[in-house]
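Action item from last week, closing it out:
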Amino acid sequence: MNREEARERAQALVAQMTVEEAASQLRHDAPAIPRLGIPEYNWWNECLHGVARAGVATCFPQAIGLGATFDEELIERIGVAISLEARAKYNTYSSHQDRSKYKGVTMWTPNINIFRDPRWGRGQETYGEDPVLTAALGCAMIRGLQHEEDGYMTTAACAKHLAVHSGPELLRHEFDARVSQKDLWETYLPAFEACVTQAGVESVMGAYNRTNGDPCCAHPYLMGEVLRGRWNFQGHVVSDCWAVRDFHEHHHVTKEPEESAALALKEGCDLNCGCTYREMLNAYLHGKVSEEEIRKSAVRLFTTRYLLGLFDHSGLDEIPYEAVGCREHLELARQAAEESFVLLKNDGILPLQPRKYRTIAVIGPNADSQAVLVGNYSGTPPRSVTLLEGIREACDREGIRVLFAEGSHLYQEPPAKHPFKNYRIVEAAVAAEHSDLVILCVGLDATLEGEGGDVGNEYASGDKNHLLLPPCQRRLVETVMHTGTPFLLLNASGSPIDLSAYEEKAGAILQVWYPGGEGGRVAADILFGETAPCGKLPVTFYYNDNPLPEITDYSMAGRTYRYLTQKPWHGFGYGLTYGSLTVEEARIEEDVSYERASGEGLNCHVTCSNEGDRDVREVLQVYVHVEGSEHEVPNRKLAAFRRIRVEKHTSAEFLIRLPGAAFGVVDREGRKVFDGSGATISVGFGQPGECETVDIRI
């Protein structure tokens, strides 16, 4: 069904409603209208990395791990898998008259906010710090979620949170993010623009905070002039949950719920997640909103429901519950985990050679944790293989004994009743002393980073206050180091952790993020060389000692790889693998000038060679720096990327397309301009300066 037909049917249906009925449909928990054959519908559903909070579902790596894959095709396939599981659940639950929260097919995914500050607790929900990467992967997820079957969208995606939103979590309900037009259009808006204009996202969610004075869920510039105006957005806008209530309770831009509901609706917020739109009818009766405004939003919402085929019979109704957690989806989750793991250091110890080891100790609070597999906004994996379980399975096959010691709590100090402060550490030291190798499983989980207000979050705010491991884990690592037994680190986190203090002595450091239900098996396969790590950092890993700007400062100066002036521990785009590729040649058409590239873009032909004894998967990265423009960012910026594979002892040529926009810059007024005198194009497997690149100048 096309949008025009869906809108016509929505208009005809809404025309039959009373004003009261139409107003009732603007809430996330829209009630049934039996006389019109409209069942109740709950718009609230989540699928950040798998259908969330509705029981069992395939659990893919957390979004930041998906960002580390740099793989658009994979992300789109994951979006398709998630949409099929969501539709299967909707079909089954609806047949049992369960139409409650998390059971619908309007998915509030993806989170395309920019991970600008490594302390932000919700950074794990994003695809990283770069606008180009975020836009590409966000569009891929949307295409997958909204793929059509039998003429209807399987699910509807939602780009969130418009637009300048990335902490602090503690202040999000009252905070005003002040941002320049340059930063707004250079960093915070490009991914949203792409998701609207290129991927056709059906929904956009506003943020909790204000931006430059106006609340994001009633923002005349962002929602009106930009979203509906410049980008011609045709879908619906939804508030973040209870964000409209913040208008009068925390932002104090209104005095009462009725006024808040009216303000949000007038500025274009069609759907309220929360309770404030329960006052919409009163706002209408008191002349604060018009019947036309209520019906306009209702039409937008029912247009989405028609596009989803919720009032028609189609093949989507036949998707069975057996799609949930099926073998094909579990294999896809496994592939995603493989591509997400980032090898930060390897002195040659990896892949492990089983014959060298009789006993391996697996130590750490994240070793046997199921919570660390999933991060936040997750479902329940059909099976959960912890790091310990995966390693133990692999060791059993090789005849290697495994010793396990928790070593410490994730973050809590032992209670006073224990005989001495570090009572878990002794077992860890003993296990290390009696082993040939230690695999230390450290890091965080959703109790240490997440959304503000999450139950059990140690920091309460959701944000971290430093970039180091918790003190009890630092003592654990130091204790193991002092035993002298060779060790490697597996770090699970959704954000940067500074492990540089252990880099010299650790044989290898592997960033595993929150890898999903298949994480333990994938970790074991990588450690023992059945497969290779091939992820790249989607976010800068900073040194903890280098000062960062205040988290409340939304200027990009000093933030992310594009603006960083200090040397990071590991930069955006970094990641090792087993074996190596070499860029032998990178070439473009001889007559391509800066002016022509700015208008048409250009094709770059890259020849890569693999002289090693194993096939290698890598990520080709192309960075651009515009010369002669005062508006260019300080460092070279990502322009394009492509995941590739080159078989052993061979060479291969790849085509990578650079869009014309890559050669533009954003001026102080937020305008995209092409005022350079030339450009430098750098082609390699990471940032210029961090790896060898082939440079082309135009």
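Closing note: The chain has 20 helices and 25 strands.
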